[in-house]
Design a protein that fits this description.
Blueprint (H helix, E strand, L loop, with lengths): L4 E5 L5 E8 L7 H16 L5 E4 L19 H16 L5 E12 L4 E10 L2 E7 L11 H4 L10 E4 L2 E7 L7 H8 L4 E6 L7 H18 L5 E6 L1 E4 L2 E4 L3 E4 L2 E5 L6 E8 L4 E2 L6 H4 L5 H22 L5 E4 L4 H14 L4 E5 L7 H14 L2 E4 L3 H15 L6 H22 L2 E4 L3 H6 L12 E2 L6 H14 L10 H5 L19 H13 L4 H6 L4 H13 L1 H6 L28
Parallel strand pairs: 1-7, 2-3, 3-4, 8-9, 9-10, 17-18, 17-20, 18-19, 20-21
Antiparallel strand pairs: 2-15, 4-5, 5-6, 7-8, 10-13, 11-12, 13-14, 15-16
Length: 577
């Protein structure tokens, strides 16, 4: 189907309603997603008032559907879903539904488009095929979709107003928006599946305002209805934050990190939104450090909740070591799933300090989670006894340290198998980057909540959480856990800094190398010690094999490990030289 400019309802009205449908679709659950759409829309539709209901990008199949788009049976299911929506719309002649879906572009070639459809009174009245296909960082759209051959926006008229259509990346460039304006559109409906990273909402709003400013230069007054999906999908987190933007600011902004359906009225005769308009500065998502940490915490909670529940689990368990990473992971798990669905296990050994045991117990009690203590001493001794003939001529080294971690992994996975609870691992981004972790030990589990959270941010989140959610009788995370030197406690008097630079220095180097693609020379020129830089970058490059075998983790930065950063395991590349 080509782009259309159709006006099934050319009549004007004094006012109409735009409904921003910020939903949490489940990837691949096409029938379920239709039911979610109809359940959310039903109370609005029965009011029988002029309404444009706008859903998110690819809402029928969820985003990102990845290679599900290549399944031969997909389009048959999509066709059935669209037919359900057409039948629903036929009951409500004053309702327009705008939603995202994959559609066949050329059946002979098996091509598909990432499209926005408008349906009204049982008919498709407009279609726009996405023109700007992102193919960077976490996006792979050129693998799956064929773009519209031109940046011509789909345009339709309803309630006396000309509406334009665009899909997500279309609005990050000028061409599709310009096309809509040139065709007379005064309201642009932009359907999105825009994943979260720190500070993303402010970037989105600034981009939309730049498109509105460009329209003004063309002599047009343009408003944009930006609808984003919400929810966790594997590593990605979608934060919602849908909004309406106009030249004066933002007449409507939806909550972030939660499903929300909100309506806003537009006065056609007076060309204005019937709600107070807030300024751009009032709506930028982050004003200070606490708000920046709060959005990260909310993202981690939502990502954990959806990853666990959407994969059919109800409960989680984790090793609570008395250290800060497991302490923060426990707090996030409780916020995501409730204390009754979280189990913490302390697994002490010879090198576990009394402080760690006490702090783990204290936090577990404060958060009211299921808590148990299971020593790994007997398991460790049994393994060493078994291996004694092989180890008899070798001094103790990192092998024995890794055996401790693997004993704990065995215990947690056995409990997972027996109880049906998912194991959460607790490694942070700094550790994952340099391989400060044990394969089949502390890396064994279903989800690494902190995989994209640098160690310095772990500390900042812990402090913020204690300030924001002070419990009766004490902090969420015992202060001593935050203040004492971090340690894996795998040998006497061990600290992380025996093997790594100070975390503040390490995280700055890692951010420069991983998130900003700086070379060793650039990082050294910024004032870092040459030997330290070479050592850190060498560790990052050598440990790709570990990260490939690690559980997925939640993305909160602009460059996470996993689908965001794809480097070969086997390579002669030497970035540090």
């Amino acid at each position: 189907m080509s782009d259309l400019t159709v006006g099934a309802d050319q009549s004007s009205s004094n006012t109409f309603t735009i409904a921003l449908m910020q939903l949490n679709p489940l990837v691949g659950d096409i029938n379920g997603n239709v039911q979610r759409m109809l359940a959310a829309l039903g109370p609005i539709a029965v009011q029988n008032t002029p309404t444009i209901a706008v859903f998110s990008e690819l809402v029928l199949v969820g985003y990102p559907p990845e290679d599900l788009l290549l399944r031969p049976s997909l389009q048959g299911r999509i066709s059935v879903a669209i037919e359900q929506l057409l039948q629903f719309s036929n009951q409500f002649p004053k309702l327009y539904m705008v939603f995202g879906t994959p559609l066949p572009a050329d059946t002979a070639l098996g091509q598909i488009t990432n499209s926005a459809l408008v349906i009204h009174s049982g008919a498709i009245v407009c279609q726009h095929n996405k023109y700007e296909l992102p193919n960077y960082r976490v996006f792979d759209e050129k693998r799956y979709f064929t773009p519209s051959p031109t940046p011509t926006a789909g345009v339709f008229k309803a309630f006396g107003v000309q509406f334009g259509l665009s899909v997500c990346e279309d609005i990050w460039f000028s061409r599709v928006t310009r096309s809509a304006v040139e065709q007379g559109a005064t309201i642009l409906l932009n359907l999105n599946a825009s994943p979260f990273h720190q500070g993303k909402q402010a970037v989105r709003q600034a981009v939309i305002q730049s498109r509105i400013a460009e329209a003004k230069q063309l002599g047009a007054e343009l408003a944009v209805v930006y609808v984003n999906q919400v929810g966790g999908q594997d590593e990605l987190i979608f934060d919602g934050g849908s909004f309406v933007a106009c030249q004066d600011g933002f007449p409507q902004v939806l909550p972030r990190f939660e499903v929300a359906v909100t309506t806003i009225e537009y006065d056609v005769m007076n060309n204005k939104w019937l709600t107070p308009v807030s300024t751009l500065q009032d709506n930028l998502s982050v004003h200070n450090a606490d708000e920046a940490l709060d959005e990260v915490f909310q993202a981690l909670v939502l990502g954990t909740q959806d990853y666990v529940l959407k994969n059919g689990f109800q409960k989680v368990l984790l090793g609570l070591s008395g250290g800060i990473d497991s302490a923060l992971t426990l707090a996030i798990a409780v916020a995501a799933l409730g204390a009754d669905n979280v189990q913490a296990v302390m697994m002490p050994f010879t090198y576990t300090s009394p402080a760690s045991i006490a702090d783990a117990q204290e936090q577990a009690q404060r958060l009211s989670v299921h808590y148990s203590v299971r020593s790994i001493a007997a398991i460790f001794d049994a393994i060493l006894t078994t291996l004694a003939p092989d180890f008899k001529d070798s001094p103790a080294d990192i092998t024995e340290e890794n055996i401790q971690a693997r004993c704990r992994g065995v215990l947690l996975m056995a409990l997972s198998n027996k109880t049906g609870a998912m194991v959460l691992t607790t490694g942070n981004k700094s550790e994952m980057a340099v391989g400060y972790s044990t394969l089949y030990g502390d890396m064994a589990g279903g989800l690494d909540v902190l995989k994209d959270v640098p160690k310095t941010m772990v500390y900042n989140l812990a402090r913020y959480l204690n300030k924001a959610v002070h419990l009766m009788g004490g902090d969420v995370i015992p202060v001593r856990v935050i203040e004492r030197a971090p340690s894996a406690e795998l040998r006497p008097d061990q600290t992380d800094q025996d093997s790594l630079p100070d975390y503040a220095e390490l995280d700055d180097i890692l951010s420069a190398y991983i998130e900003h693609d700086q070379s060793a020379e650039q990082i050294i020129a910024a004032g870092f010690d040459q030997a330290v830089v070479y050592d850190v970058i060498g560790k990052v490059d050598r440990n790709e094999h570990k990260r490939r075998q690690a559980p997925p983790g939640l993305r909160i930065t602009q460059r996470a490990f996993g689908r965001d950063r794809r480097y070969p395991i086997t390579s002669g590349w030497q970035a540090g030289h």
